[in-house]
Amino acid sequence: MVLGHDEASKALEAPDPERRAQVRRAALASAIGTTIEWYDFFLYNTAAALIFPQLFFPASSSYAGVIQSFATYAVGFAARPVGAAIFGHWGDRIGRKTTLIITLLLMGISSAIVGLLPGTAAIGVAAPVILVALRLIQGIAIGGEWSGSVLLAMEWGDQRKRGLLGSFAQIGVPVGLVLGTGGMTLLSATLSDEAFSSWGWRVPFLASFILVGVGLVIRLRILETPMFAAVVKANRTAKNPVREVIKHHWREILLSAGLRFSEQMPFYLFTSYVLVYVVAERDFSKTFVLNGVLVGAALELAFIPLFSRLSDQYGRKRVYALGALITAVIAFPYFTLLTYGTSTVVFLAIVVSMIPHAMQYGPQAALISESFPTHLRYGGAGLGYQLASVFAGGPAPLLATWLLHETGTPYSISVYMVLAATVTLLCLAALPDRSRKDITDDATYAR
Fold first, then answer.
1. Residue 186: other Cβ atoms inside 10 A
2. First CA to last CA across the chain, in angstroms?
3. Is residue 401 a contact partner of residue 272, using CB atoms and an 8 Å limit?
4. 52: nearest Cα among 69, 75, 74
5. How far apart are the C-alpha atoms of 66 and 56, rounded to whole Å?
6. CATH T-level assignment (fold) for domain 5-445
7. So what's the pLDDT on residue 1?
8. Residue 418: which of 300, 297, 334, 315 has the closest Cα?
9. Radius of gyration (Cα) for the chain, nearest Å?
10. How far apart, in whole angstroms, are the C-alpha atoms of residue 433 and residue 436?
11. What is the pTM of this model?
12. What are the domain boundaries of the chain?
């Protein structure tokens, strides 16, 4: 069912005080919703590095267990474009609000079930099979979540602040990382290794039930965005939005995916693979590395809105390109510091690596979303954003593990990072900068 005209009228005709309240609610719903989604997603990432190799692949060697665990991790990324297509269709048909409620429920319930799942020792091969199925559901949910959350805030607020408003959804990533990694860090530090491995890691997953309840209360209180409501009132919704956006905006989808390479691939090296590398190569404790990731994520809470606001002032592409260049520049020094640095140097390297990520991730929400017209924006932005997951984010820890094993040097991973930054800069150069254009005007997207 398409959004009703009555609800569309409420969004379009809201008085100024109500409109300002809706802007605040939309920003809050955007941030809290993505926080919950990414909390669940990052819990899995951390568990994939620290727990799942032994629990679900106990017969494998240490190297093979890590490879198998990160392979299940990658499955979630492969499912994300599928989620973007499914929920992109409905987000551009029935509206942003309803679609986002469904994605929240899917993610929360599947994550809680992971916390209840017995290991291979208890139920045999069914354990890793169910784990993969749950990871697929997580991937589909997160694939449908991102673009809707961005549009919820960006399409409600002041259009001169689209970069800042879109970044409320991006803030959910470091907050989710702080909560998810923080929960794991606290339990890892306070429980014995045996207790943490047997039951302690499950507690943060089960907490998803509570978080989903909070998210639902907030999302049920918001109206549909005025931009999409105007499309509904004018009877301009597309019959098949995903097919139409692929047909007419395939170039923007591919460029949006490509510009994410230097943001997404290094991010999963900085937050997930680093847990394996530093613990195995330097014999630092899991808690030490988790604390570094936790502080780095907290740092992003300040830097994501800062760089997003700067993108409103100076243009998305300028800020984004600088972040990609810095990522390429630090690729070799980063692994040098991790491999040879003192504990203080290693900790600082883990923390500071998050700054160039924030320079890209903050402005990215508006940069990608502005590339598509309103009636196709949910699907187009979602497909572009999530397609990168298949080629950049998902394979990153898996390929890094393989590269180190095959070459014997972490600098092969540095080369991988530089290549990712090169792809980003080329795609960024080809994508128009619509930072200051009227994105409610379809003439903006005319070819």
1. 16
2. 31
3. no
4. 69
5. 11
6. Growth Hormone; Chain: A; (1.20.1250)
7. 46
8. 334
9. 21
10. 8
11. 0.82
12. 5-445
